[in-house]
Design brief:
Shape of chain B: globular
Order of helices and strands of chain B: HHHHHH
Strand content of chain B: under 5%
CATH architecture of the largest domain in chain B: Up-down Bundle
CATH architecture of chain A: Orthogonal Bundle
Distance between the termini of chain A: 56 Å
Chains: A mainly alpha (about 100), B mainly alpha (about 160), C mainly alpha (about 375)
Number of helices of chain A: 3
Largest sheet of chain B: none
Number of strands of chain A: 0
Number of domains of chain A: 1
Number of domains of chain B: 2
Shape of chain A: elongated
Number of strands of chain B: 0
CATH topology of the largest domain in chain B: Four Helix Bundle (Hemerythrin (Met), subunit A)
Structural class of chain B: mainly alpha
Number of helices of chain B: 6
CATH topology of chain A: Helix Hairpins
CATH superfamily of the largest domain in chain B: NADH-ubiquinone/plastoquinone oxidoreductase chain 6, subunit NuoJ
Oligomer: heterotrimer
Radius of gyration of chain A: 17 Å
């Protein structure tokens, strides 16, 4: 392990919280989706770091990292499809302007 | 001497990835924050290379940078309005969010530094062959489920974004 | 003679190790490879532009550059001087930082791919054990650079050209990777050097292009590679008569030279990788291995330039239809046939079943994709 495990875990915590800040604070829906990608990447960093230090089942971390990447791509796809449909109907992509239950 | 240089290099990669991630959430222009996300993803792929997970590093560049970012940038281009530069990009909750998250990071970092992680130095190298055997061996069930989920997502995205 | 360059590098490193500690010798070894690639890349690109201009002009029954040096061989140097001294125009409303970075971000993947191409025996700069996937991943990042270039120019033609180009690149990546998967199946490894070594023996008859699935995969990989380089007949994104010059409309001088350089380096690496995967890479009798590699690569580059001089451009819908409706199903069937090839017992059965399945599916796909010809219109004239 070239650098101590704790440093990588602190890095992934910081990345997760930056992503979470983006989700909570940004008004633009695509900005929120981009921040969700950061959160999923932080989780992947954790999985890979732990797969590097365990002898029993090292490929488990990498297999689940592949699954997380596939699911993140899928979430981005469906989220962006929803954003495109929203833009077509309401001409806006700001999350706080979409505040009616039925329009 | 080379070990010190490689440690310094890895810390530089971590620092630059964090700077790029900050750029993602703080830059006002949405296209610039998408480009910062590309930089973050490439930095994370470099970290995977340093952790000797080459296959995952290459898959990360291929899928995230090559495919997901293309999709996100397409969506940004299709929904862009020119007057976006003057609209504020942050809602009113930025200060409470920042304080809460700073507290969260502080707590979790303290826990991480105080717990005692069982680290073993010599781990078998996981290459593409071992990953392939695992995916089609022990983890065959999630693999098949993911293919069904991908088809469902593909059909769903096409149906939602269709003009009718 | 075969290991001329390997011995040169070893001699240089032995000379350096006499007065440098071991760590620095490792760094020096990497630096020698990097400098060799950094000289080879642009030099190749310059003389590929000369080759293209002479070839296309001969196809069009004219002579081509012949004033600057014998046979126009110094023309690329003159072109380089011209591009360096041209005024660098940035449009007024353009996003300056992104406009500046776009050509830079295009050249980086084009150069990075040179590091996994095996130029000769023991002459790949880095023998990654995921070499082929590295090539695919790094070429996929070109899409981001094209987006940057087209968006930052703030020009509707650039935007349209950029989006068409990215749609084309992303669509043609899928059949390209799927058509190379049978090769990886046959080799059992993703490393480019192992793929070349797996084609050795039997005086060249074990090259993957001589098997039915290999031939189909070769043609599809090469055509998808031509589409990835935005070359004719797939050059809608930069067709001069269609949308001005697509995503590099607003670039002049050195930035345009960088886009052009990236495109030619892509041409070279795609041809080099096709030769590696299907034509046996650096293997061949008598001549040194690197001479064979460059011969095969330049033969494929010649075919690409021949396409440019001969074929008209495809329309956007024809282009996308070709990728999704023809190449993709065909590569999936090809993968199935390649799997069958390794499990059928006798040689005759293997060849027969593969050829039959491939021919039937080719016929079916051509029939399904026939353009729909509407019935003739009946004109009724007013009396």
């Amino acid at each position: 392990m070239p650098i101590p495990l704790e440093h990588i875990l602190i890095f992934s915590t910081l990345l997760f919280s930056i992503g979470l800040y983006g989700v909570l604070v940004r008004r633009n829906v695509i900005g929120i989706l981009i921040s969700i990608e950061l959160i999923l990447n932080a989780v992947n960093v954790n999985l890979i770091a732990f797969s590097r230090v365990h002898t029993l089942n090292p490929e488990m971390g990498q297999v689940f990292a592949i699954f997380v990447i596939a699911l993140a791509a899928l979430a981005a796809t469906v989220g962006l499809a929803i954003v495109l449909a929203l833009y077509r109907v309401k001409q806006t992509i700001y999350a706080d302007e979409v505040n009616l239950l039925k329009w | 001497m080379l070990i010190l240089a490689s440690k310094l290099f890895i810390y530089a990669i971590l620092f630059l990835s964090l700077v790029a991630a900050l750029g993602v959430v703080m830059l006002p222009n949405l296209f610039h924050s998408a480009l910062s996300l590309v930089a973050t993803l490439i930095g994370i792929a470099a970290l995977y290379l340093a952790l000797q997970a080459e296959f995952i590093a290459v898959v990360q560049v291929l899928l995230y940078v090559g495919a997901v970012m293309t999709l996100i940038i397409f969506a940004i281009m299709l929904t862009h309005r020119i007057g976006d530069q003057t609209v504020p990009q942050k809602n009113q909750q930025s200060l409470p969010a920042f304080l809460a998250l700073a507290a969260f990071v502080g707590m979790v970092s303290t826990l991480i530094l105080q717990s005692n992680w069982p680290v073993s130095e010599t781990v078998a190298r996981v290459d593409a062959l071992a990953l392939g055997k695992a995916l089609l061996g022990v983890y065959i069930f999630p693999f098949e489920i993911i293919s069904v989920v991908l088809i469902a997502g593909l059909v769903g995205a096409v149906v939602i974004a269709r003009k009718d | 003679m075969d290991s001329l360059f390997v011995n040169l590098k070893k001699g240089l490193l032995d000379f350096l190790s006499s007065f440098l500690p071991a760590d620095f010798v490792m760094i020096a070894s990497a630096l020698v490879s990097i400098i060799a690639i950094a000289i080879l890349g642009p030099f190749t690109m310059m003389y590929l532009t000369w080759f293209e201009r002479k070839l296309i002009s001969r196809i069009q029954n004219r002579i081509g550059p012949n004033r600057v040096g014998i046979f126009g061989l110094l023309q690329p140097l003159a072109d380089g001087v011209k591009m360096l001294t041209k005024e660098d125009i940035v449009p007024d409303g353009a996003d300056k930082v992104v406009h500046f970075l776009a050509p830079v971000v295009t050249v980086i993947p084009a150069l990075l791919v040179f590091s996994v191409v095996p130029f000769g025996r023991n002459m790949a700069a880095v023998d990654l054990n995921v070499g082929f996937l590295f090539f695919i991943a790094v070429s996929a990042t070109t899409t981001i650079a094209i987006f940057m270039g087209s968006w930052a120019s703030r020009n509707k033609f650039s935007l349209l050209g950029g989006m068409r180009s990215v749609a084309q690149l992303v669509s043609y990546e899928v059949p390209m990777v799927l058509s190379a998967v049978p090769v990886i199946l046959a080799t059992g490894s993703l490393s480019t050097v192992s793929i070349v070594e797996a084609q050795s023996g039997w005086h060249g008859l074990k090259w993957f292009v001589f098997t039915p699935w290999g031939l189909v995969a070769f043609v599809i990989f090469y055509l998808c590679g031509v589409a990835e380089c935005n070359r004719t007949p797939f050059d809608i994104p930069e067709g001069e008569s269609e949308i001005v010059a697509g995503f590099h409309t607003e670039y002049s001088g050195m930035k345009f030279a960088l886009w052009y350089m990236a495109e030619f380096m892509n041409v070279f690496t795609i041809s080099g990788l096709t030769a590696t995967l299907f034509l046996g890479g650096y293997q061949g009798p008598f001549l040194p291995s690197w001479v064979w590699f460059f011969t095969k690569t330049y033969a494929l580059v010649f075919v690409m330039m021949w396409f440019r001089g001969t074929l008209p451009r495809l329309r956007v819908d024809q282009l996308m239809g070709l990728a999704w409706k023809f190449f993709l199903p065909f590569t999936l069937i090809n993968l199935f046939v390649a799997g069958l090839w390794f499990f059928l017992p006798t040689r005759g059965l293997r060849v027969g079943v593969s050829l039959a399945l491939l021919a039937v599916s080719f016929g079916f796909l051509v029939w399904v994709n026939k353009p729909f010809v509407p019935e003739k219109r009946m004109y009724e004239f007013a009396e």
